[in-house]
TrEMBL record:
GO CC terms in record: extracellular space
The Peptidase M14 domain, residue ranges: 383-706
Designated name of the protein: Peptidase M14 domain-containing protein
Cofactor (UniProt): Zn(2+)
Biased composition (Polar residues): 791-802
Region of interest: Disordered: 791-813
SMART domains in the cross-refs: Zn_pept
Family: Belongs to the peptidase M14 family.
Entry's Gene Ontology BP terms: proteolysis
Keyword Signal: yes
C-alpha cells in the first residue's frame, strides 16, 4: 500500500476504533432549562420562561465511574474530558437549578467557562461583521495597490508579488490578479491568480499572494479586479531589495470572518457551485427538516396550581402568532365560565361565585377552551406540566401568542432544504468518495466554518494546489447537518444542542421548557443505539441527549444515510464537532454493564487509523502549532465516553466507511498559570477563526489520505517474528511493512480469508502474541486496507504462494 506519509513503515499500535461523532448523555432528572424539574414544581413557585443563567460549567469527579454516572443521568456533557490531580474534569451545560441539583448530590462544580454574556459578545461581534459585509455589498469597492513588484531569486527564476487593499473588508470579497508577459504583450498573457485575504489578530490587512508567483517573463502591468466591482491597473516595478527564495507553492486560505448561520452557509456553497460549475455542484438532500418554527404559545398564572398555557394548532409563522387570548372578569355575581371567539381573538369570561369573586380553576379554563369548537380549532390548552390545575385563575388582558423565535426575516421559517456541495472533476461515482460533514450539534459554531473553509480552498486553489484531490476524488461537503437547531442556537438559545423537533407530550410543552425540546442527531442513528441497550443517550424528550422516538426518526439523520447510500463510492468520512481537541474513530458506544463495546475494528484497520492520524494531525499542527494529545486520540470510548447511536458507527458498521471525528478547539496553554484552558463551544471569533483554519488543514489532509488509498496498488509484506520461548512453548507474532491484516493457519492447511486473523493484544498494546506448545507449520499472508494481497496470492484459489514458516517449541528471539 502506498503510504500517505511519504514512506512505508510498520506500526505496533493497539487495536481500537472510534469515529465522527460528538457526544452527550442519558435520562435527566431535571429539565434542561432554567425552570424547576417537573417533579419539583411546587404551588408557591412561579413558572419561569427566563433564559438567563444557563452556563458551561466545570465539574471535577474522582473517576470514570462518576463520569459514566453523569452520562447515565442525562447531564448535558460537552465533548471534553481531562485528567487532573484531583481526578477527572468534565464540562456540562447547566441551568442554575440543574447546577444546584448536582451540588446537592455531592458533585464538585468549579465555576463557569462561558455564559450568556459571552453569547451577547459573540452576537455583537457577528452583527458588526454582517453590517460591514452588507455595506460592502451595497457599493463597488475601491482597490488600493500597496505593492506591485517582480524580482529574481538566487537561481535566476522570476517571481511576482502584489499586495492590494479593498475597501470591502469582509471575507466574501475575492480579488483576482491578471498580468502581462512583458512590454507590448496582451494584458492577460502572463497569467491570472486569485489573491489570498491576509488578516492579523482578526483584522483585515490586505490581499496578497501567500508566496510570490513564478512567472516566465517580467510583467510590466498587473490588473486586479474584485467580485465587488472594483478594478485597478498599475505598473509592476522591479524590486531592488535583497533577493529572497520564494516558497515552492502558492496557496490561498482564510475565507471566513464571522460566525455564520445555516442560511448564510448554504448561500455560500450555492454560490461556489455556481462560480465553479466545472468542478462543483449542489445536491439537494431529500428530507426537508421540520423548520425553524414553533407553535405560538401563551402562559397564564402566577403559581403552578393556577397556571395554564395555550399552544396554537399551527406554527407561529403560519398564523399562530396572530392569535390572542384574554381572561375577563365579568364583574357580576354567579356568572358562568364561557369562551367566545372572534376571528383569531379568544375571550375567556371567567366564572364568579355568589359574591362576585372569580371562581374558575386552571383545569376548568383548560377544559372550557378545549371544549369550544372555534377555540380548539385555533389552540390547545393544558395545565402546567403535571399539576392538576386546582388553583384559581386571575383575569388577564388580551395576550398575543408568540413562537418566541428571534431570528431575522432572512431565516425562513418553513422546512429547510439541506444542501451538500459535491466537488470533483469527475462526478460519476467512479472515484473514491469522501464525506465531510459538520454541525450535527447546533451550538458548535466553529465546525461549519471548517467545512466551508475547506470547500473554498479546494475550489479556489485548484489551478495550483489540490488539483490532485479534486481530480482523483469525489468530495461531498455538508457544512451544517442541523440547520434548524443551529438557527435556534444563533438567535434564541446559544447552548441549543439538538434539532427543533418537539416530541414531548403536552405535560412538558409549556413555554418554559422550550430550550428542552429536540433530538440529539448524533444519537438518532441505527447502530449501537439506546434502543439496542447502549449507553450515552436518553429516551427522555427533555434530555439534551434525547435519541428521538425511534432510530432514524429525524430527517437530518436520514439525509446522512441517504447520501452514503445514494453514493456508494463514499469510502471515507469526517464528522467535525467541538470542543476539546480530540481525534477519534469507531466504535463509539458500549453497554454500561460490563462495558460491552461494539466490535472493535480489526488490527490492520486500527493501525491504518493510527498511521493516517499522524498525517492528519500533523496538518492541523502546521497552522499554529496545535498538537492533539495522544490521550485524546483513539476510539471514542477509549478517550471520552459512550455515545449510543452516533453517525460514525452508522456509516462504519452499515456501509464500511472509514471515518474520523474531529473535536476542534484544543485547550490553549496559559504560560502565566502553567495550565491548559478550555475554549468552549463559541469562543471569541478570533479563536474560532484559528480553529477553523487549522482543522480545515486536517480535512484537506483526510482528502490526501483518501487519494493515497485510491491510488494504492502496492502489495504488503509480512514476516513472522519469534518473541519468546521456554522449554515447552514458543511465542511469536507477525510484522507488516504497512497497516495490513495477517491471516494464518497453524495446522499446515492453506490460509484463506476465513482463517484466524492477527488481533491486538489489547487497547494500545500492539499485536497479540501467539503461543504454541508444539512444533507447528505456520502459513500466512497479508492484505492491506486497499485490498492488495501479499505476493498476489489468491486466498480463494489453489495457489501456494503464501508465506510458510516452521516454528519449533523452545525457540527464542
Amino acid at each position: 500500500m502506498r503510504s500517505f506519509l511519504g514512506g512505508r513503515r510498520s506500526r505496533r499500535l493497539a487495536a481500537v476504533l472510534a469515529i465522527p461523532l460528538a457526544i452527550g448523555l442519558s435520562p435527566l432528572p431535571v429539565l434542561a432549562d432554567p425552570s424547576p424539574p417537573v417533579s419539583e414544581v411546587v404551588p408557591d413557585r412561579q413558572p419561569s420562561t427566563a433564559q438567563d443563567g444557563v452556563a458551561l460549567i466545570r465539574i471535577i469527579v474522582p473517576d470514570q465511574a462518576s463520569v459514566d454516572r453523569l452520562n447515565d443521568m442525562g447531564v448535558d456533557l460537552a465533548e471534553y474530558k481531562k485528567s487532573t490531580d484531583e481526578g477527572i474534569e468534565v464540562h456540562a451545560v447547566l441551568s442554575p437549578q440543574e447546577a444546584q441539583d448536582l451540588r446537592d448530590q455531592g458533585f464538585d462544580l468549579r465555576g463557569v467557562i462561558s455564559d450568556q454574556s459571552d453569547f451577547a459578545a459573540n452576537q455583537a461581534e457577528r452583527s458588526r461583521a454582517l453590517a460591514s459585509a452588507d455595506a460592502a455589498e451595497a457599493a463597488t469597492d475601491t482597490l488600493t495597490v500597496l505593492r506591485s513588484e517582480w524580482f529574481t531569486s538566487l537561481d535566476g527564476r522570476r517571481f511576482l508579488s502584489v499586495e492590494v487593499k479593498s475597501s470591502a473588508i469582509d471575507s466574501q470579497t475575492v480579488l483576482t490578479a491578471t498580468w502581462d508577459s512583458g512590454p507590448g504583450t496582451a494584458p492577460d498573457s502572463g497569467g491570472t491568480a486569485t489573491m489570498s485575504r491576509f488578516t492579523d489578530a482578526g483584522q483585515y490587512m490586505y490581499h496578497r499572494f501567500n508566496s510570490p508567483l513564478a512567472v516566465t517573463e517580467a510583467p510590466t502591468k498587473v490588473t486586479v479586479t474584485s467580485n465587488r466591482g472594483g478594478s485597478v491597473t498599475v505598473n509592476v516595478n522591479k524590486w531592488l531589495g535583497e533577493p529572497r527564495k520564494a516558497p515552492s507553492r502558492h496557496y490561498i486560505s482564510d475565507f471566513v470572518d464571522h460566525y455564520m448561520d445555516p442560511t448564510e452557509l448554504t448561500e455560500r456553497i450555492v454560490a461556489l457551485a455556481k462560480e465553479f460549475p466545472k468542478y462543483a455542484e449542489i445536491i439537494d438532500l431529500p428530507n426537508k427538516t421540520n423548520g425553524y418554527r414553533r407553535q405560538a404559545q401563551g402562559q397564564f398564572g402566577t403559581v403552578a396550581a393556577s397556571t395554564f398555557y395555550v399552544s396554537s394548532r399551527t406554527f407561529g409563522s403560519e398564523g399562530g402568532n396572530d392569535i390572542s387570548v384574554a381572561l375577563v372578569n365579568p364583574n357580576a355575581a354567579a356568572s358562568p365560565l364561557s369562551v367566545a371567539v372572534t376571528g383569531k381573538d379568544i375571550v375567556v369570561t371567567l366564572a364568579t361565585d355568589a359574591a362576585g369573586a372569580l371562581s374558575s380553576t386552571a383545569k376548568q379554563v383548560v377544559d372550557a377552551v378545549n371544549a369550544n369548537a372555534a377555540a380548539s380549532a385555533l389552540v390547545s390548552a393544558n395545565t402546567y406540566r403535571t399539576n392538576t390545575g386546582a388553583g384559581l385563575v386571575a383575569a388577564a388582558p388580551a395576550t398575543r401568542l408568540t413562537d418566541n423565535l428571534k431570528a431575522p426575516a432572512s431565516v425562513k421559517r418553513e422546512p429547510f432544504q439541506t444542501k451538500a456541495l459535491r466537488i470533483g472533476k469527475t462526478r460519476d461515482g467512479s472515484k473514491v468518495g469522501v464525506f465531510l460533514y459538520c454541525q450535527e450539534h447546533a451550538r458548535e459554531w466553529v465546525t461549519p466554518l471548517t467545512c466551508l473553509e475547506t470547500a473554498e480552498r479546494l475550489l479556489r486553489n485548484y489551478s495550483r494546489d489540490h488539483r490532485e484531490v479534486v481530480d482523483d476524488l469525489d468530495i461531498f461537503i455538508l457544512p451544517t447537518a442541523n440547520p434548524d437547531g443551529a438557527h435556534y442556537s444563533m438567535y434564541d438559545f446559544n447552548m441549543q444542542r439538538r434539532n427543533m423537533t418537539n416530541h414531548c407530550p403536552a405535560t412538558t410543552g409549556d413555554p418554559a421548557a422550550r430550550n428542552s425540546w429536540g433530538v440529539d442527531l448524533n444519537r438518532n442513528f441505527s447502530v449501537g443505539s439506546i434502543f439496542d441497550g447502549y449507553s450515552g443517550a436518553s429516551t427522555s424528550c427533555t434530555s439534551d441527549t434525547f435519541a428521538g422516538p425511534a432510530e432514524l426518526s429525524e430527517p437530518e439523520a436520514r439525509n446522512e444515510v441517504w447520501l452514503t447510500q445514494q453514493f456508494p463510492n463514499i469510502k471515507f468520512a469526517m464528522n467535525t464537532h467541538s470542543y476539546g481537541g480530540y481525534f477519534m474513530w469507531p466504535p463509539g458506544a458500549y453497554k454500561s454493564a460490563g462495558r460491552e463495546l461494539l466490535p472493535r475494528v480489526d488490527f490492520g484497520t486500527e493501525n491504518y487509523f493510527w498511521e493516517a492520524s499522524s498525517h492528519i494531525l500533523s496538518a492541523v499542527q502546521a497552522h499554529r502549532g496545535t498538537g492533539i494529545w495522544p490521550g485524546r486520540t483513539g476510539p471514542v470510548p477509549d478517550v471520552l465516553y459512550s455515545a449510543a447511536g452516533n453517525s460514525a458507527d452508522e456509516h462504519w458498521f452499515n456501509r464500511g466507511i472509514i471515518g474520523w471525528d474531529f473535536e476542534v478547539g484544543a485547550d490553549l496553554y496559559d504560560p502565566a498559570t502553567g495550565r491548559f484552558q478550555a475554549v468552549g463551544f463559541q469562543p471569541p471569533f478570533s479563536e474560532g477563526h484559528e480553529e477553523a483554519m487549522e482543522f480545515a488543514n486536517g480535512q484537506i489532509a483526510i482528502l490526501e489520505v483518501a487519494r493515497a488509498f485510491s491510488q494504492d496498488r502496492r502489495r504488503p509484506d509480512s514476516k513472522l517474528r519469534i518473541t519468546g520461548g521456554t522449554g515447552t512453548s514458543t511465542s511469536f507474532t507477525f510484522l507488516t511493512n504497512e497497516p495490513a491484516n495477517v491471516y494464518y493457519t497453524l495446522d499446515g492447511s492453506r490460509p484463506t480469508l476465513s482463517s484466524p486473523k492477527l488481533a491486538a493484544a489489547g487497547m494500545r498494546e500492539g499485536a497479540q502474541q501467539i503461543t504454541v506448545n508444539q512444533t507447528v507449520e505456520v502459513r500466512f499472508f497479508a492484505v492491506d486496507i486497499a485490498g492488495n494481497v501479499e505476493n498476489n496470492y489468491q486466498p480463494d484459489g489453489n495457489g501456494n504462494n503464501y508465506n510458510d514458516k516452521r516454528v519449533k517449541v523452545g525457540s527464542s528471539h
